[in-house]
Design goal:
Blueprint: H1 2-33, H2 38-45, H3 48-69, H4 73-77, H5 79-82, H6 85-97, H7 108-123, H8 130-148, H9 155-188, H10 192-220, H11 230-286
Helix pairs in contact: 1-9, 1-10, 1-11, 2-6, 3-8, 7-8, 9-10, 10-11
Length: 287
C-alpha cells in the first residue's frame, strides 16, 4: 500500500513537471520562431496595413509642405509611386538587420525630389534658386524618413540574436527534462499504459496552461510595447498579438496530442479491466 501510494504521488509530481516544462518549451519554441527570427520582424514591419497608415501620414505632411513651398502637392505625393511604400518598409526592415540605412536617408529619395522639382520649374519657367530646391528636397526626404524609415531600433538585431540563443537553450533543456520525466514514469510502471496515462495528463495540462496564460496576457495587454511614432507602436502591438496567437494555437495542438494519448491509454485500461471482470465472472460461474 505504501509503495503504491508513493508511486502515485511521484506520478502526479512528474505529470505536473511535464505540464510546467511543456509550457516553457512552447514559449521558447515560439520565441525562437518569432522574436528570435529576423524574418518575423521584416514581415511584421512591411504589412499593407502599416503601408496604408504611412501613406495617410505622408499625404498630410506633404500637403503642409506643398503649402509651405508653393509647389504642387503631386510633386511630393508622387514619391509613393516611385518608391512603393510597402516595399520601402520592407527595405527599411531588412536594412535594420544587415547594418544598412534603415532610416531610408541614403539619398535616393532626395535625388528624386530634387529632380522632380527641377523638372516642374523648368517646364513652367519658374525661378527658384538651387539652394531653395535643395532645402525643399531635403525636407521632403526627411518627412519620408520620419514616416516610413525605422529609427532608434538598432538594438533589435542584438536582442534578436540573444533571444534566439536563449530560446534554443531553454527549449533543449525542456526536451531533456521531458525525456527524463517520461523515462521515470515508464520505469516505475510495469504496464506501460499507466505511464502513457500519467504522461498524457501532463501534456494536456501543459496545453491548457499555455492557452489560458496566453489568453490572460492578451486580455490584460501584458507584453505590449509603446514606441514612437504611433504607427510603429501599432506594428509592435500586432507582433505581440501574433506571438500570443501562435502560443494559443501551439497550446491547443499540445492539448489535442495529450488528449489522444490519454483516450488511448484509458481505452486500453478499460479494456484490460473488462477482460479481468469477464475472467472472474467465468470463474464464479463455474463455482
Amino acid at each position: 500500500m505504501m509503495l503504491a501510494s508513493s508511486r502515485k504521488i511521484l506520478s502526479y509530481l512528474l505529470s505536473a513537471i511535464t505540464a510546467v516544462v511543456l509550457v516553457i518549451a512552447v514559449i521558447s519554441g515560439i520565441n525562437h520562431l518569432t522574436i528570435g527570427n529576423k524574418n518575423f520582424y521584416i514581415k511584421s514591419f512591411s504589412t499593407q496595413a502599416l503601408a496604408d497608415e504611412c501613406n495617410k501620414q505622408l499625404t498630410e505632411k506633404y500637403k503642409t509642405l506643398s503649402t509651405k513651398s508653393n509647389l504642387p502637392f503631386d510633386i511630393f505625393d508622387s514619391v509613393k509611386v516611385k518608391f512603393d511604400t510597402k516595399e520601402s518598409l520592407n527595405q527599411a526592415a531588412e536594412s535594420l538587420f544587415d547594418e544598412n540605412d534603415a532610416t531610408l536617408k541614403n539619398g535616393s529619395r532626395y535625388n528624386y525630389f530634387k529632380s522632380t522639382i527641377g523638372e516642374y520649374i523648368e517646364a513652367n519657367d519658374i525661378k527658384i534658386s538651387d539652394k531653395t530646391i535643395d532645402i525643399v528636397a531635403a525636407e521632403a526626404q526627411q518627412i519620408y524618413s520620419d514616416t516610413v524609415g525605422i529609427h532608434n531600433l538598432e538594438f533589435l538585431q542584438n536582442d534578436m540574436q540573444k533571444q534566439s540563443t536563449r530560446s534554443i537553450h531553454s527549449f533543449s533543456i525542456c526536451i531533456v527534462i521531458l525525456a527524463f520525466a517520461a523515462f521515470l514514469l515508464a520505469y516505475i510502471y510495469d504496464k506501460k499504459v499507466q505511464f502513457v496515462l500519467y504522461f498524457s495528463s501532463g501534456i494536456m495540462a501543459g496545453g491548457v496552461a499555455t492557452v489560458l496564460s496566453s489568453l490572460v496576457m492578451r486580455l490584460t495587454h501584458v507584453g505590449t510595447v509603446t514606441v514612437s511614432p504611433a504607427v510603429w507602436s501599432s506594428a509592435f502591438g500586432n507582433m505581440a498579438n501574433n506571438i500570443l496567437l501562435f502560443r494559443i494555437i501551439a497550446g491547443i495542438v499540445v492539448w489535442l496530442i495529450g488528449t489522444v494519448l490519454f483516450v488511448f491509454a484509458q481505452h486500453r485500461i478499460n479494456r484490460e479491466q473488462m477482460r479481468k471482470n469477464t475472467r472472474y465472472s467465468k470463474i464464479f460461474a463455474k463455482l
